[in-house]
Sequence to fold (311 residues):
Amino acid sequence: MLRKKYMILMVLVGLATQMMGQQISKEELIFLTPEWKGERFDDGRPKVSDALLERIKSVSVEEAWAVMKNEGYRYQIAEGWKMINPDSVLVGRAVTATFMPGRPDVWKAIDDRGKAQGKRGQNTWPVDILVKGDVYVADQFGADKDGPTIGDNVGNAIFAKSGNGIVYDGALRDVEGLMEIGGFTSYYTSYDASHHNPPGDLNTMLVGINQPTRIRTVTVMPGDVVLGKMGVVTFIPAHLAEKVATVSEVVRLRDMFGHQRIKEGTYTAGQIDTRWSDEIEKDFSKWLNEHIDELPVSREQIQEILKKRTW
Fold:
């Protein structure tokens, strides 16, 4: 009886593994993101809330960098991109895809398994799992000639599912068409008019979905918060997203207060640009309460900041 139950369990595990294709298992993803204590998607990916994503849109690159550096995450910023909609901010939860140089036997094994599951075109497999608020993050190792796996058709599918753009270390095609998608704020490496066309022009193959991947010098985990602005992309570990947002809000409010008091002549730049005295701290708290409904941070967030203040 026990043997029979064991065999049934192994069959179920085998079926689950087969259905995942190139996707990491839920158990492995949870294992690799142990610091995240919040809600997760069904596949185990950390699910940073939409409200928190909205707050992170106002975070500066420097503020995010400072918090992450202090927590030991020194290599979370990727530079050197071409951009679509450079004046817009890209924010969302990472869905990762990892490509490697094409090898016929491995590509065929992966492709045959996908076809058995009713899938077509490896380049669309990660796109199929996107939801609103996601950002498609792909390591295509800078592949250029015969490498593009995203053109205007796949780009429109990505935007329809996620409402977002991409971070794509590789060549895009149909960039003019992609620019016509209003909110498709994207970071990419290069442009090439060719397209991914295996098995004849086998340049790349998909080896991982929602697995740890590398973008430039950054290790990106599924569920990381992507913050693209000022020409760079910052990848914020999900468990640090709340801290990054809160620190940014505190800095923003203190800067507003400090600038106002300097202009009024109440304090000198030297007094504001150093550790504040108890007198200035009390003045700041009073100023927060007096202007709580006029500030760019919500009343609820300000009250939470005051409750948890550590300065």
Remarks:
- The first helix runs from residue 2 to 20.
- The chain is about 40% helix and 20% strand.
- Residues 1-19 have pLDDT under 50 and may be disordered.
- The CA atoms of residues 26 and 43 lie 5 Å apart.
